[in-house]
Amino acid sequence: MANAVRFYETGGPDVLRYEEVDVGEPGPGQVRLRHVAVGLNYADTYFRNGTYPIPMPNGMGVEASGVVQAIGEGVTNVQVGDRVTYTGFLNTLGAYSTERLIAAAPLIKLPETISFETAAAMTMRGLTSSYLMRRIYDFKPGDSILLHAAAGGVGLIVSQWAKLLGLNVIGTVSTEVKGEIALAHGCDHVINYSHEDVAQRVRELTDGVGVNVVFDSVGKNTFMGSLDSLKRRGLMVCVGTASGPIPDFNPALLAMKGSLYMTRPALADYIADPAEKTALAGELFDHVGSGRIKIEINQHYALQDAVQAHRDLESRKTTGSSIFVI
What we know:
Blueprint: E1 2-7, E2 16-21, E3 30-40, H1 42-49, E4 58-59, E5 63-71, E6 83-87, E7 99-103, E8 108-109, H2 116-134, E9 144-147, H3 153-164, E10 168-173, H4 176-184, E11 189-192, H5 198-205, E12 211-216, H6 223-227, E13 230-238, H7 252-256, E14 261-263, H8 274-290, E15 297-301, H9 306-314, E16 321-325
Parallel strand pairs: 9-10, 9-12, 10-11, 12-13, 13-14, 15-16
Antiparallel strand pairs: 1-2, 1-4, 3-5, 3-7, 3-16, 5-6, 6-8
């Protein structure tokens, strides 16, 4: 028998249950996958607490890596024994498991240069970083960005990638320790939002001009400060809502603050096209495999400790990436 984390109602971390499950054989277009490592993402908490509504009961998690054990009829993109990783949304829900059935379409073959643990720690964060750096804005050397949660999983990858592109990176953090981590991974400056005014400090660091782009994964608590940190005609990228949804606002506000642009992208729309997903994954794997970008796995959990993992994540005790090791 396999094991999986499931939940029967929405709520806090305590709704998660570690159970035995019967996996069965893959149907048409499916594979049976044995997991080696599973990713822990903040998006998981949105499924658990009901922010992302899904039918109940359901599985938890959208990202993992492992080995293909069996394939169903019509599967041609992978073979038995292939090392693979995946991430997605509803089409990959159920990753918190030792073994599972999954559609073959989301699977990405892993090069030998990438370990299972690294893959589980970076597939969602890495592909997110890849489209943020390569699809959202036409960056030029010398451009500036404001990166919220700079010591988080996406933050550490984006800051390293940004330096490869020659960007000036200003990161925000909540503690001095996280500030040191962010500086060590490419940030040129850090702002501790616990006791500094972010927008004011950004203006000081940019000679009053502001940054070209803000990557804001925090949401409600940082929204106005992010807008006030942008240069004229700058781009606000809302990539998450860790503190809650951004408040309703009149679009005229964007004009009042300098004819700003704003987008709320979703990874699913940047990996829906197989060719684009392959290109984004290929560039990510090349950077990581060569050592130009390092993936920091700072928390390891057993799958049966999912409740504690979610508590740690929501209390902001984690830095870098977190994974479950099977």
